[in-house]
Design a protein that fits this description.
- The protein is of the alpha/beta class.
- It is 43% helix and 15% strand.
- The protein has 13 helices and eleven strands.
- The chain has helices at 3-18, 25-38, 43-54, 61-72, 116-121, 130-140, 165-174, 205-221, 247-257, 267-283, 301-314, 335-340, 353-365, and strands at residues 91-92, 104-105, 149-158, 162-163, 184-191, 194-199, 226-231, 235-237, 288-292, 317-322, 346-349.
- It has a six-stranded mixed beta sheet, sandwiched between helices. A three-stranded antiparallel beta sheet has the order 3-5-4, with no helix packed on it.
- Helix 11 (301-314) links the parallel strand 9 (288-292) and strand 10.
- The longest helix is centred in the middle third of the chain and has 17 residues, at 205-221.
């Protein structure tokens, strides 16, 4: 099969996987074999080759059709049957270290393909190459976290809400008893405290840089009400280290104060240290606590379960972010995850930029 065709078909299969279909490497090979058998001279042939090899249930058909139309658009396949000795100036194939995008032909309608950035948004951070990581850092800097909000004790004037009796009476007195407007009030909204706990053990190493950059964004969205800690073999407060506006400078500063990067993990002991030293002192009380961890625990799960229970009793909401949560076929069977799930309000994915965006929505609405 010509090289250009193979790259385009593989890119389509991986776009399906990014859209949530359980497409494995074995499915990709079957798809290429089926396409070679039926031929690629017509869109219908490629469609049915993919439909028969890349879908596994009726629920997969609708997203398959959407990705197929988006990926191939109206381009014909006979233009990709030969690999040119040199690419014409009008032919562009932008790649981001493995994130394929379909070839675009200038002078003809460009197919509405999934862009390399969109593919990158759904790509697993743990398997990204250096160029993809660089692009990911740029995209992370564009995220705009919204801090969770809570109602304060004090009130403010409003067009609707609760009746403000004292102000209404004062207004009537000012008018010498004449009928005047009814004044309403509502409670003010303030940022709710957010606490971020980052697992920096060896098993979380592929995701540690991105998690810390996301925490940096959350901190600068609400600097007065956000705290950040790392957990490994020790609990380290890195809020002050992450104060610099430039993320690279902040990560260097954090690296200087965290002594246990990519080491072991003692989640139960770290949660106990946080609750005893910081949580009970007020930092976790009615706060939104976001824990980034895959749940691997060296010690038994009993201590972790007990400390998760204590933390939940203090916090307003506990969100557990696992890099494996969004992967196809994942089951929460690790002892650590099984131990904490009864004490967690939200168990969400944390393996891609798209998952980070969904996480930020969960935090904002907590």
């Amino acid at each position: 099969m010509p090289w250009l065709v193979q790259e385009s078909l593989l890119g389509f299969a991986r776009a399906l996987r990014s859209a949530g279909l359980p497409v494995t490497a074995a499915h990709e090979r079957l798809f290429l074999q089926a396409a070679a058998e039926v031929g690629i001279s017509a869109r219908e042939q490629v469609y049915w080759a993919g439909r028969c090899t890349l879908t596994g249930s009726p629920d997969d058909i609708v997203p398959f059709d959407e990705v197929f139309a988006s990926w191939f658009g109206g381009a014909s396949f006979d233009r990709l049957t030969r690999r040119p000795s040199s690419l014409p100036s009008g032919l562009q194939a932008p790649l981001v270290d493995g994130a394929e995008s379909v070839l675009r032909l200038s002078g003809s309608p460009a197919p509405a393909v999934a862009s390399s950035i969109e593919v990158l948004r759904h790509r697993d951070i743990g398997v990204m190459g250096a160029a993809e990581q660089q692009e990911l850092r740029r995209l992370l800097a564009t995220l705009a976290p919204r801090p969770p909000r809570r109602r304060a004790r004090r009130h403010t004037a409003a067009r609707r809400g609760d009746l403000d009796g004292p102000r209404t009476l004062r207004e009537q007195r000012r008018r010498m008893g004449e009928v005047g407007p009814v004044v309403y009030r509502r409670k003010r909204l303030r940022n709710r405290r957010t606490v971020v706990l980052l697992d920096v053990s060896g098993s979380m190493r592929p995701y540690a840089d991105s998690n810390l950059r996301l925490a940096h964004r959350m901190l600068h969205a609400a600097p007065r009400t956000t705290e950040v800690f790392t957990m490994g073999t020790r609990l380290t407060r890195v809020t002050r280290a992450l104060r610099p506006r430039i993320a690279d400078q902040a990560l260097v500063a954090a690296g200087d104060v965290v002594p246990d990067w990519a080491g072991g993990t003692r989640l139960g002991e770290m949660l106990r240290a946080f609750v005893d030293r910081w949580g009970r002192g007020g930092l976790a009380r009615q706060a939104v606590v976001v824990i980034f961890s895959d749940g691997w625990e060296r010690q038994g799960p009993e201590l972790l379960a007990e400390q998760a229970r204590r933390l939940r009793a203090l916090a307003h909401c506990v969100i557990w972010v696992s890099p494996h949560r969004g992967k196809s076929g994942y089951q929460p069977v690790q002892q650590g995850i099984v131990a904490v799930l009864p004490h967690v309000d939200h168990f969400v994915a944390g393996h891609s930029l798209a998952a980070f965006a969904e996480l930020l929505d969960v935090v904002a609405q907590a």
